[in-house]
Amino acid sequence: MEGGALALPHFRSRVGIGSPILLSADPGAARRSSGASGRSRVSRVNPGAYPRSAGRGRTWKRDSPEAPPRRSGITRVPNHSPEMPTERAGRTKVSNVNLEVSHHRAVAAVRLLRIEKGKAFVDLLNEKGNSSGENEMSYVERTLGFSIRCLDNRDIRLVTVIVAGTVRWKRYLDYLIMSLCSEEKVFREMEPLLLQILRIGFFEILKLNVPAYAAVDENVRLAKVALRPGAGNLVNAILRKLLLLKEANSLPLPKIEGDDRAQARALSIIYSHPVWMVRRWIRFLGKEEALKLMKWNNSDPHFSIRVNTANGYTRADLIDRLESLQVHYEKSTMDEFVRIQEGMQTVLQAGLLKEGMCAVQDESAGLVVSVVDPQPGETIIDCCAAPGGKTLFMAARLSGQGKIWALDINKGRLRILMEAAKLHNLDAMISDIHADLRLYAKETTATFDKVLLDAPCSGLGVLSKRADLRWNRQFEDLEELMCLQDELLDSASMLVKPGGILVYSTCSIDPEENEHRIAAFVQRHPDFVLQSVHGYVPAEFVTDEGFYSSSPTKHSIDGAFAARLVRSVL
């Protein structure tokens, strides 16, 4: 499994929260007549009177992020019918472009809805540029009933920042939203779209430092137009109360006190992570390191790009292109890599990936390839190869001599890998195998000089780049993953020649997926001996046991692990 290596034009970058960004009202906002400015009185009706029909007004119950202390706040939601055009049978659909609402906020709200349903990625940045915006406008029209103007690159950047940040801080935001409702039922039964708009407003005020007038007025206007006037009044009242609490430095956050379990619950809200992750990290890393890790996961991710030497490019060539595009960069300690924190959209749209000049790949993945240490003339199999970042880097290291087999169970991802291999002028050195490793190892008689198993894992080392992953992982997943990792390790070991090398790697920082799996494997396979990675990677990445380990908080790259094992000749 490739933790952070996406070497293809299909790359989807994980963008974080930059410096405070002014998400101001759209041009001409002063001429709008939505009535969003000023204080609005909120009608009080029975909160159970939500529309029961399918659609935006459907009652939707959710679990409480944590039960907060009871506070005075808004307890009722007006139940006015949405004032928006509907398409009736027999009528021709007319595009209804709404120039009143903040277009990037409308897109962000709809995208957040789709993410919760598992139908969208967090980001919008890709090489397609405006077509990405066109897709989002289509979703907005189908969800909200009106169209918005075209998104430009700046809009796409803003949407990505808001969505990624809102997803990361969801637990923290939901706790505060519920704290400002005097009845928990209001939060639990809040309409999905209304909740997303409130999350956006809270995130802008608390984490982006958006001016109060913009955060309040624009989100109120969006709620009024997309839902109904009463929904806008509710948003107005809650956001204004949040502003008062923020100014008084009295946000109703939980205190870190009590036993270990209670402290972990409080920290999980303050730093917006699942409780099980917090407890696990405190257990394995200690409280101080766990806090550093959660802060890293909530910070701006940076990205690394690797120059494609197989196409004759050098890092100097790549730097020249970045400078011509005015993209700020930082040289990596690895010769083939350059780090960038902003400007990924520019890099993608400039076609650097399509030209085969470079690939998006974290240095942590590059160091795994260093542990494999591909040498010209060797035969290597990458057992869980897609999407192919490590496969391509290993092929480039062979300098035109040798062969790599890329095996994966996903045929579509293999096809993308081979397209990238052709783009990087490495297709003659790479052959694909569409198979389940466990079945392939039993059926084939082939053996290889080196075998890389980049195993499916929890991805706990890449949470900074993958904003939604923390909410998609459950504690129970670890047990299933560890069983799968053991099965794949046993199968991969069957493909190693006597005297050959087996490398096991993950993009996890969890010892039970890493060191514990190797210890169990060696007990089952006494013909394999652990070999230290010293000399293959810099000393700072070598553990006392001889493993490769990168730490986000210590090395400022993704968390990853690798073990190098040698099969005995006899």
UniProtKB/TrEMBL annotation:
Primary location: cytoplasm
Annotated region described as Disordered, given as residue ranges: 19-95
Family: Belongs to the class I-like SAM-binding methyltransferase superfamily. RsmB/NOP family.
Localisation: Cytoplasm
Molecular function terms from GO: RNA binding; rRNA methyltransferase activity
Protein name: 16S rRNA (cytosine(967)-C(5))-methyltransferase
Binding-site residues for S-adenosyl-L-methionine, renumbered to this chain: 384-390, 408, 436, 454
Gene Ontology cellular component terms for the protein in this record: cytoplasm
